[in-house]
Amino acid sequence: GLMWLQHGGGLRHTCDSGDGPDRYGWLMHDGENFGVQEIRDGRLLLRTEFVKQPGGDHGGDWSWRVTARTEGKGPAPLLSLFFYVATDGQGELRPVLLNGTRLAAVEGTSEELGNFTLTFLPPTGEGDEGPKYASYNFLAVGMPGLHRLTELVQHSLRHISWFSPPGRPRRQYLGVSGTGELPWGPPRGQLLLHQVTLEAPLVLEAVLESGSAAGARQGRLAGRALSAVLARHAAAFERRFEDTFGLGARGATLPQRRFAQAALSELLGGLGFFHGRSLLHSERHSEPLPGPESTLFTAVPSRSCFPRGFLWDEGFHLLLLGRWAPALARDVLAHWLDLMNADGWIPREQILGDEARARVPPEFVLQHSKTANPPTLLLALERLLPDAPLPFLRRVFPRLRAWFSWLNRTQAGPEPLTFRWRGRDADAERFLNPKTLASGLDDYPRASHPSEQERHLDLRCWMALGARVLAALAERLGEPAEPYSDMALALSDNALLEQHHWAPELGAFADFGNHSTAVKLRWHRPAPVPGRAPPAPRLRREVQEAPRPRFVGALGYVSLFPLLLQLLDAESPRLPALLDAMRSEAQLWTPFGLRSLARDSPWYLQRNTEHDPPYWRGSVWVNVNFLALRALHGYARTAGPHRERAARLYRELHHNLVTNVFRQHEATGFLWEHYRDSDGTGQGCHPFAGWSALVVLAMAEDY
Q: For the segment 361-381, what is each residue's pLDDT rounded down to a tens digit?
């Protein structure tokens, strides 16, 4: 990996949303062999490029180039780049030193890479400029774990070193000490670090050469040879992108195409391989237990905020990944299905190992075996199904069948063909409306008093989708499809859907449960304790009307699910009401996309606790807007009385969503987790190139 330090500033390593550079992200990335990334940190512009060269039995060679330049006027601070190699429990590293001070190369052996040599080439200037003067430091220490890597290097930056270019004044800088014991107990691996300190502009290259690829190698991939290969890969990426999405042919401008390439590349650049154990709470055990050792190859919602796997997010990621690289998408899907336990449960959040756990608030670490998540992997599989190889489908079918059976069994509702998310927040007095994290829509308003009598509309629609996909998969494999096709037919019965979920008083579909319409958060001051400071006031829930079984009057994304997953017939008499709600500015319509909760709702933009700002209570979310575009596109192409209206609404929503996401990216350099419904400003985590990258498929009108 890479760290950097502008002397006088702080050490940069991992991207954290609260302490990140001005802009950063992949501009091009093909998901496998090539990528170009730019990082803007104050006046410093870093460009990282890599390319792989297949060969041998261990993945072949790869080369990495880092270019740095300083923008603006005035003297630039000294820059240190830290290239490091670390092992985590296996493998061996051997330093190759030059003059006893410079780490020229690392020779190593590991199970995955076999024998390899990683060489750090001397720095040069940009273009055809020759060698660049630099000072060097190196570090060789035991590793306490990858989650403490930044801390370890910061601890080691205590050696006063001198940068002494010929004929120019000497300058002090902080260098890592060469060796030393660190106060963190027995090591779990090794760290070798190469610190290069110099002035920008500069170019540095690192080359990994695989021992098993020596016979196929035609010279080292560095310098001009590397430039030529990078240029060829960039041209190939441009061609493949246009062949796949056709944005140029659709009239997209060059800035729009560059934006779409960056959105796709940021998703692909976030693919990661994770290893470790989750912390699980099962109904079979009273205490939490570590799960089995697991591996997961997955995209992530956000490199800065959520650098780990999320089950319902991944289905949306795979819609885009499956269009770009179907084999890669199938690999990711298979990894997720391999996380299933014997009951058919897949934990919704994958926090595997110490490195992942270090980035997660403690209250979210534990995964509960009753808690589900929307089966969006089936949404992706539906797209992959026509071209997926039969051997792959045969391997995943038993797992998909087990997962769907688990959902059907454990999330069943109070009546046949109704469903209820388990795991709603139990401490109802803390929340304006207890959260339903299992649904993925966290604080979206549900019944005010969680009970076993709830009927959740979105889950019912997800189960209908799942039954439909499993029926198609079974038919493709020649397996009995009737159990799934019969269930899909029953769950798509519009009359039964209305019976369970149509709320006449709301004029829309809704959840049903034990619900009060008069619930507020009020400040309460706890009773004082003698001899102690007065306790701080707290926001607590007040129920001013007793709850009773009724429909939940929250008009928003959940209300649209029969439309979003296209369960409503094109001739349904309920379709106009949903189209009205979508287009009403007092309800869901904004110039930036559909807001998550109607503006005239009592929960609109309301906090859930004093520490919980509104999340799914008004913001515009790209993933649900993509489902809306997909559905409207489908209804616009299906004969029926609402066809023209669906087409008109589709065109307007498409323009609003794409225009705003592009405009915000141009202004900030980032895709965002969600967008403010009042002015379209990006909010939440950034960069959020998980489901927000679905804007690429929207631009291509590829549903």
A: 888 899 999 999 999 999 999
Amino acid letter, 469: V
| Strand 508-509 with 502-503, pairing | antiparallel
Q: On the CB side of 538, how many CA atoms lie within 13 Å of its CA?
A: 11
Which residue ranges form the domains of the chain, and what is each CATH number? 2-245 (2.70.98.110), 259-284+292-520+539-700 (1.50.10.10)
Closest CA to 198 of 135, 140, 150, 148: 135
Is the confidence at residue 187, as pLDDT, over 90?
A: no
HSE of 53, CA atoms in CB hemisphere, 13 A: 24
Count CA atoms closer than 13 A to 578's CA, side-chain side: 29
567-623 pLDDT, tens digit per residue, is: 999 999 999 999 999 999 999 999 999 999 999 999 999 999 988 999 999 999 999
Whether 261 shows a pLDDT value over 80: the answer reads yes
User: Distance between CA 149 and CA 2 in Å, rounded?
Assistant: 11
The DSSP annotation for 515-535 comes to E-S-EEEEEE-PPP-TTSPPP
Residue type, 566: Q
SS3 string of 119-155? EECCCECCCCCCECCCEEEEEEEEECCHHHHHHHHHH
pLDDT digits (tens, 9 = 90+) for 195-238: 999 999 999 999 999 999 998 888 899 999 999 999 999 999 99
Distance CA 124, CA 237 (A): 27
Q: Which of 558, 403, 404 is nearest to 468 (CA)?
A: 404
> At 67, which amino acid appears?
T
Centre a 10 Å sphere on the Cβ of residue 357 and count the other Cβ atoms it contains. Answer: 17
Q: Is the pLDDT of residue 149 over 60?
A: yes
Tokens matching residue 108 = 């190593």
Rounded CA separation 661/680 (Å): 8
The reported pLDDT for the residue numbered 51 is 98
- Return the structure tokens found at 490: 């029953």
Q: How many CA atoms lie within 13 A of 360 on its CB side?
A: 22
More confident residue, 325 or 281: 325
Q: Residue 567 class from Cβ within 10 Å (0-12 exposed, 13-18 middle, 19+ buried)?
A: buried
Rounded-to-integer distance, Cα 241 and Cα 527, Å: 64
Amino acid sitting at position 62:
W
- Cβ contacts of residue 242 below 8 Å, gap of 6+? 248, 249
483 by Cβ neighbours in 10 Å (0-12 / 13-18 / 19+) ranks as: middle
The span from the CA of 416 to the CA of 403, in Å, is 19
Greatest alpha-carbon pair distance for the chain in Å reads 87
Length of the chain: 703
* DSSP string across 446-492: --SB--TT-B-HHHHHHHHHHHHHHHHHHHHHT---HHHHHHHHHHT
Question: At CA 64, angle to CA 60 and CA 67, rounded to 5?
Answer: 170
Query: Residues 29-81: pLDDT tens digits?
Result: 999 999 999 999 999 999 999 999 999 999 999 999 999 999 988 888 899 99
DSSP state of 385: G
**Residue positions annotated with a catalytic role:** 442, 673
> For residue 534, is the peptide bond before it cis, meaning its omega torsion is within 30 degrees of 0?
no
Q: Which amino acid is at 236?
A: A
Mean pLDDT of 90-102: 92
Residue 88 tokens read as 């985590």
In sequence order, which residues have a C-beta less than 8 Å from that of residue 654 and are 6 or more positions away?
Answer: 629, 698, 701
Distance CA 152, CA 138 (A): 13
